[in-house]
Structures are given as structure tokens and as C-alpha cells.
Amino acid sequence: MHTAEVGTAGWGELKRVDMVFRCDGCGHLSVATGRQELVPFSASGGTRLVLDGPSTWFPRQVGTRVYDDVPTTIASMANEAHQCLSIEANRAAVALARAVVEATAKERGITSGTLEKKIDRLFDQQLIREYVKDAAHEVRFGGNEVAHGDLVAEPMDNVTATEILGLMDEILDEVFQSPARVRHRKAQRLERERRLKEGDTATPEDASQETPADDIVSVSEEPPF
Fold it and tell me: How far apart are CA 177 and CA 198, in angstroms?
């Protein structure tokens, strides 16, 4: 459903209209903008309002990210940064990205000194490679611009903010996710070697798929949603 604030407009003039829609699923309201156009309606010269659908939704679709193997508090901050980015709250997104880098260093026990020093110590302790160190500094520079109010003349645009958050994701992958993938792969290999040594050829995946002969398995072709 919609409501529209209709004002006066010249013949054939396009005008912005604010509309409110109620979701059939959840029942909550969303606000959108559209157009109104005054067009002939009758021989007497009357007019009617034509709405050709919303052109912009508020709020926009909010983007989210899932960070496996990243500590919950840091993953939550990084996800919030991407949510800000998706609605073009660019400065907020970059400020959060900077906070994510600092929280990452602190989680690894590097708690003293400036963020610049923390990043260098991550590299010195071989927790990140050199190019990731440079990426972390770029996130720091972007966050500093926001924090120190250096973006008055040239605001942070969405393209730049997207690049900075991409670098933030590189850091999280380097410190948390990539090592976790290696540990998982190593654990699977060692488990396979153990089974082979003990003569156990059934894999955990095979065991989970075994079905008693008396059971009837129903397979639905409907998608699981």
C-alpha cells in the first residue's frame, strides 16, 4: 500500500512522491520515493495521479558478512562496517574498519603503542605478511582521515570506502581465517592417516550417510527454504 503527498504540478510535470509500503510478509513499513505525473483523466480536463513504482527504497538493502573463525566481537564490528557501507555511510564504515584492525592487534596480545606501532609489531611477529601490513596501514590512514575531520573538502566516497573495507577483510583473513583453514585441513589429514593406520576405511562422511535397511528415506525436490 502507499500514501503520497500530492502537490501542485504543471502539465506533464514529474514530481517526487514519498510512499509508504507495508510488507506482506512481516507487516512492517518501508519508505520509498517515486514519481507523480499529472495526465488527462476525463474530457473535462481532470487529472489523476500515476505512480510507476518506487525508484529508491529507504532503508536500502543492508549488506552483511559472515566471518568464520574470527572472534565474535571483531567479526561483529567488521560486519557492521559492511552494513554501513551498503547504505553508503562511508565514513562510519571506514572508522569501523580502523577499529577492526586495532582490535585484531589487541586480540593477538599487542596492546601498547599507537596503531601504527601495533601494525608493525603484527608484521614483526610474523602474524601478517608485508603486503598485508601495507594494507593495514592504508586502513589506518583512511580511518585517521575520518577521525581527524580531514574529509570536509572531499568527502569519503563509496568506491574508496569499498576498497578500504576490502583491505580490512584481507587482514582478517590473514590473521584468523587462513590459519584456521590450514588447521582444519591438517586435522582432516591426520584423521585420515589415523584411520588408514588402524584399518578403518569408513570416513565420518560415509558413516553419517549410512541408513538402516528398514528405514524409508523421503527425498523432496522442493528447495530448502
Answer: 32
The confidence score (pLDDT) of residue 26 equals 74
Measured distance between the N- and C-terminal CA atoms of the chain, rounded to whole angstroms: 26
Considering only CA atoms, which of 45, 38, 19 is closest in space to residue 30? 19
DSSP 197-221: HHT----HHHHHH---TT-------
Q: What is the 3-class SS of 53-122, one letter each residue?
A: CCCEEECCCCCCCCCCCCCHHHHHHHHHHHHHHHCCCHHHHHHHHHHHHHHHHHHCCCCCCCHHHHHHHH
pLDDT in tens, 141-167: 999 998 887 766 678 899 999 999 999
Per residue in 39-84, pLDDT (tens digit) is 555 555 554 455 556 666 666 666 778 999 999 999 999 999 999 9
Phi-psi region of 4 (alpha: psi -120 to 50; beta: other; left: phi over 0): beta
Mean pLDDT of 184-205: 83
Cβ(164)–Cβ(119) below 8 Å:
no
